[in-house]
Amino acid sequence: MKRNILSILGLVLLLNLSTLNVNCAEIVYPKSNNVTIDSPRTFFIGSVNPDNKLTINGEPVEIHPSGGFWHTVNLSVGENIFKIDNGKESKTYTITRNNSNSNPNKTQLTEKKYNKPITIVTNENNIPLRSTPVDFGINRLQHLQKGILFRAIGEYGDFYKVQLARDDYAWITKSSMKELQNIDLKPVKIDSFTYEETPDKRIFKLKLSQKTPYVLYDNNGLDLTVYNVDSCPFNKYEIHINPIVKLFGFNSYYKSDNELVIEVNNAPVIDKNCPLKDIKITLDAGHGGSEYGAISPLGNKEKDINLAIAKKLQTKLQEAGAIVYMTRDDDSEVSLSDRVKKSNDNNSQIFLSIHNNALPDSLADRKATGTETYYFYPQSRELAKTLLNTITTDLELKNNGAKQQSFAVIRNTNSLAVLLELGYIINPEDNAKLMDECFQDKAAESIKHGLENYLNGIQ
Question: pTM of the prediction?
Answer without folding.
Answer: 0.90
